[in-house]
Amino acid sequence: MVVREIYLEIPKIGGKILLPQNQHVFHIGKKDIKKSATLSVDPALFSAISSVRKDPKTGSYVKQQFIISLRGDRYYIEDLNSTNGTYLGNLNLKQTTPQLLKNGDKIIVPVEENGTLIQMDLIFHDTTINTPNGSGSSQVEKLNEEPFKDPTIASTVAPPSRSHHSFTDPTQSPTVAPSEESSSGGVYFDPTQAPTVPPVHDPSMAPAYRRRNAIFMDPEDPSFTSNSFILVKRKMPIPPNAFRPDSGLDLGMVYKLEKSETWHILVAFSLLFIMVYHSYINVMGLTALYYYIQYQYFIGISAIFFEPLPIALIFSLSFIVHETAHLQTGKHFHFQSRFCLTTVGMKTTLRSAIIGIPIALPGAAVSVGVDPDDDKDKMGAIKIAGPASNFILGLVFILISLILPGSLSTLKMIFLQGGSLNCVLGTFNMFPGEFKGFALDGKYIKKWKPKYYFILLVLLLLGLVVSILLSSTGQ
Description:
Blueprint: E1 2-10, E2 15-18, E3 25-28, H1 30-35, E4 53-54, E5 61-71, E6 74-80, E7 87-88, E8 91-92, E9 99-100, E10 106-113, E11 116-130, E12 140-142, H2 206-209, E13 229-232, H3 261-295, H4 301-305, H5 308-332, E14 336-341, H6 343-355, E15 363-368, H7 376-403, H8 409-429, E16 434-435, E17 438-439, H9 441-448, H10 450-473
Parallel strand pairs: 13-15
Antiparallel strand pairs: 1-2, 1-11, 3-5, 4-5, 5-6, 6-9, 7-8, 7-10, 10-11, 11-12, 14-15, 16-17
């Protein structure tokens, strides 16, 4: 008698997930993998794996690590919006259609070990067991040895390779299976997905692939670091046009990557302007209400609706200058860099603009290939460029206010406000701590060069004090 057995083996935790043949869809997430553990392991090991989540309104699945579905008598695997990605061998499932599973195929998911994301292997088993009343002895026979072409998969998608030495070529369409080496002489791998590393023939190179990268991928699961400057760490040679949608890099956090950098900057500037302008109107409206109730004095429509305009303009300009400083410093060190809107940032900034609360930033400078371990000096220089640019711009505004004649008192006050606003923005970005994976420039600057950190911080605070004093004296 022949019995078919389907299951996922997880050697690292001694786990085994059975896939009953009467079930057509298997939703695999953190709990499913964790519950299968038979060895005693740190619960934090599973923190990087996505949980199975449903939309409370529609009941549909919106996130999980991966899904395995039964079609006919064949099993297919598909990544469903996981945080850190799922790989079938070296194939990034976030960039492909569902892939056919064969006996012995290796599925790779991220886990966290000692603060570092590494890979965990899950082995797919599709076997038959001949019981004694069949052939007379028990033996395991492998299925799916013959090539299979599924008609539901586009003709451009090849079945996943079982070879352990193939890599995905990002110059090809995302739905194309792994191909040969790139024209640059190297091979490509998805550098934004740190946990799933390619096979390494030289053991001395392995630790370099296992370092954690610093991209914020999921606001509900902050396993990575987010800040006003985003880096995409180099795991393999970077493609020459890293910011093209078909480059092979997983820049899923970028909103409308296909749009030009100018478009991204203009949208960010506009959203910030509206957000700050609306916020300032709210403040001025409350102030006007207070003066009217307390003193029966109305400060006027112009004060409410026109005074916020230069403040909103200066803030938006200061933000763009800050990010441009990150951007140009990255380019100076020959990293591919550009300003990008982020999906999470766009949503939060849009909500803030509607409500009128200035608590969000729509995008950031992105530099590809920066390694915070191997490029510490370059990384530090890129980081310090942002708040340093705010100090310089603030100083320029303060000096202009001193040069302007007293007859232009309104203009003098606008420039003084611009000076103080830049010093505030720069000081804010010098915050050295981290909260739930969110860190600003100050954390890296202080770690890189404590002396530079304290000098710049003192200068920013001094500029803020000077601008406030000048404003209070009417200078």
